[in-house]
Design brief:
The structure holds 2 protein chains of 2 kinds.
Chain A lengths: L2 H31 L5 H13 L2 H12 L4 H10 L7 H26 L2 H9 L4 H9 L4 H16 L3 H7 L9 H10 L3 H28 L1
Helix pairs in contact in A: 1-5, 1-8, 1-10, 2-5, 3-9, 5-8, 5-9, 6-7, 8-11, 10-11
Chain B lengths: L1 E9 L4 E9 L3 E5 L6 H9 L6 E6 L2 E5 L4 E2 L2 H4 L2 E3 L11 H5 L6 H10 L15 H13 L6 E4 L7 H15 L6 E5 L2 H7 L2 E6 L2 E2 L2 H9 L2 H12 L2 E2 L2
Parallel strand pairs in B: 3-9, 3-10, 7-8, 8-9, 10-12
Antiparallel strand pairs in B: 1-2, 1-4, 4-5, 5-6, 10-11
Helix pairs in contact in B: 8-9
Classes of the chains: A mainly alpha, B alpha/beta.
């Protein structure tokens, strides 16, 4: 069995989850509680990956992350390296691909906070920044956990975007979903079955956890 | 030393247009029917809503002045605000709630003793009664050493007995407040019991005829006038 691809998958899911928890929490809070020009456009852009075919997202990410693209150029300027066909590249791609799954549940959780709690924090002298950390985050933990689980699971299942941006380099960009596809192509049904089987308990446990969280609420 | 208020704001069904003043050591009660703009006035005082025009001046500090473009944020107004119903932070214990904006923990302990909730200090808001939560909310507001205390129908969600008890506690404590207190209620008994000064607010304005209309309809208006004479409440209208 291709344990290495399983390891890359779990590593990618973990890194993507961490990146998206850090990036999406303030973004979702802003979308839940602030009014600003262009808000609905920003929101539509964030949710776009749910409506586009993964190969289309993958194509545009190749352009953006390539040596002449704005992400690739910036990355090259800072590190001197390339993003395409690297683990960092697929981590960036999967973060962009999975961002709606982080923002949506977090935004819903932040919207559920009684507005007066936020106002009480302001009246008690807390800045908007401190209110986010001391009031909003602790009172939205279940939504944030649900977002983390969704992102983790969504990343473990990603295929189209990752294969286009990262290819299939063993130990670097070949995740389990790509390994399963390649095993089937090579008629290695046993290898494909073993890897596929690993996903069932993983998904089951995580979904059970989400269910418990929802029931707890 | 006082807070002077002169506010105008257009609302959907009526306009708020109110001017009044509340000195230190004094409790000004805004009374009037529900939906008459009292909470909006309090929220404008707290900086949670912006008036269209006017000014809010505490002593010589300008908190809001539309013509000068001054609008101090709620964080910087340093006021105590007890909301209509429970706004304690659910993830914190009662003590953590009360000490939320205070650096002096021993002072919070004293307030807890004063409001007789010391034994509940480690409980979460959902584990205590409504009256205990509101006691804690008052401790939270006072622990901040506010320049002014705003109470927006703080006991309206409580049962009659608890409400009466808390009303008594507040009145007994009133003398120790060396800042203006503005109290909003629609309960005439509460207003009579607590007020140094009463302002009837109807549809966003001080309505001089409100007392007279109440007098015609029931004996509540009479009671206000009688109490005003007996208790030397200055009817501000």
């Amino acid at each position: 069995m291709d344990f290495v691809s399983l390891y890359v998958t779990l590593k990618l899911a973990l890194v993507t989850t961490i990146i998206l928890m850090v990036v999406s929490a303030p973004l979702a809070y802003m979308l839940a509680h602030a009014e600003f020009p262009g808000k609905s456009i920003l929101e539509t852009v964030i949710y776009l990956p749910t409506a586009l075919p993964p190969t289309v997202i993958g194509f545009y990410l190749i352009i953006a992350m390539g040596p002449k693209g704005f992400i690739g150029k910036g990355w090259g300027f800072v590190t001197g390296g390339s993003l395409l066909f690297t683990f960092t590249g697929i981590a960036v791609a999967s973060s962009i691909y999975s961002i709606p799954f982080a923002v949506q549940p977090m935004k819903a959780a932040f919207q559920k906070i009684d507005r007066r709690l936020i106002e009480n924090a302001y009246v008690l002298g807390l800045s908007k920044y401190s209110t986010f950390f001391r009031v909003a985050l602790p009172n939205s933990l279940s939504g944030i956990m649900a977002a983390a689980v969704l992102v983790f699971l969504h990343t473990t299942g990603a295929f189209g975007v990752l294969v286009m941006v990262g290819g299939s380099i063993p130990g670097e960009t070949r995740v389990a979903s790509i390994a399963i596809y390649e095993a089937v192509e090579m008629m290695d049904y046993r290898g494909a079955a073993m890897l596929s089987l690993c996903f069932i308990p993983l998904s089951f446990i995580f979904l059970l956890f989400i269910n418990k969280l929802n029931r707890g609420n | 030393m006082s807070i002077s208020i002169n506010l105008k704001k257009k609302l959907k069904y009526f306009d708020i247009d109110i001017s009044c003043e509340c000195p230190d050591n004094s409790m000004l009660v805004m009374i009037g029917p529900s939906g008459g703009g009292k909470t909006t006035i309090i929220r404008m005082l707290a900086g949670l809503e912006q008036p269209d025009e006017g000014s809010i001046i505490y002593n010589n500090d300008i908190w809001f002045n539309s013509s000068a473009g001054i609008d101090i944020s709620p964080q910087k107004r340093k006021l105590g605000y007890v909301f209509q119903d429970y706004t304690l932070f659910p993830h914190l214990s009662l003590f953590e709630n009360a000490a939320f904006a205070s650096k002096n923990k021993s002072e919070v302990e004293k307030l807890f003793d004063l409001f007789r909730i010391s034994h509940l200090r480690n409980r979460k808001p959902r584990q205590v009664s409504g009256g205990e939560r509101q006691r804690c909310a008052i401790c939270q507001a006072l622990a901040r050493h506010p320049k002014i205390l705003l109470l927006d129908e703080p006991f309206s969600a409580l049962d009659a007995i608890t409400r009466r008890g808390l009303r008594e506690e507040l009145r007994n404590m009133k003398g120790e407040f060396d800042f203006p207190v503005i109290y909003v209620t629609h309960d005439i008994n509460e207003a009579l019991y607590l007020a140094d000064e009463i302002i009837p607010v109807v549809q966003g304005k001080i309505d001089e005829s409100w007392i007279a209309r109440m007098t015609e309809r029931s004996d509540s208006g009479n009671r206000i006038l009688k109490a005003a004479r007996e208790q030397k409440i200055a009817l501000a209208y």
